[in-house]
Amino acid sequence: MEEVNPEEQGQSLSPYTCLPPLGGAPQPLNPHKSHPDTAADLLSALSQEEQDLIGPVVALGYPLQRAIIALQKTGRQSLSQFLSYLSACDRLLRQGYEEGLVDEAMEMFQFSESQAGEFLRLWEQFSDMGFQQDRIKEVLLVHGNRREQALEELVACAQ
């Protein structure tokens, strides 16, 4: 008969034993979320320098996730650029544009609120006319937000 070490007792596995997840602490099962979703989790993922920048901005009422995205896009070098980016996005969002599209427009036009705003306005007009959204973006970029040239090209391609 084989002797069982008392330290190993209780550690044999049956086919019905549930193993804890790798990495220690049990994690909630949610296959749709691969990122932390609580404010504490998001903040703890940032460096102290980033937390020091984001803390006052969140205290002003900006959503934490939007502040983190703005910080990622503008970098930590310029607090004024970070704040102006957030303010510009906030103004564009209040006009009813979708957040992902606002972020994309701001990035395409190197954080120029006026150019991003014109792009969004034209994009919305052309979308309402039934043109393909990817094509609209391409044509507006090629023609530098010039409505008439962009519209001519969209119509020509649609025929």
TrEMBL record:
CDD domains: UBA2_UBAP1_like
Pfam families per record: UBAP-1_UBA2 (PF21267)
Region (Disordered): 1-36
Top-level lineage group: Eukaryota
Gene3D superfamilies linked: UBAP1 SOUBA domain
Domain Ubiquitin-associated protein 1-like UBA2 as annotated: residue spans: 119-156
PANTHER family: LD44032P (PTHR15960), UBIQUITIN-ASSOCIATED PROTEIN 1-LIKE (PTHR15960:SF3)
Protein name: Ubiquitin-associated protein 1-like
Organism for this UniProt entry: Saguinus oedipus
Taxonomy of the source species: Eukaryota, Metazoa, Chordata, Craniata, Vertebrata
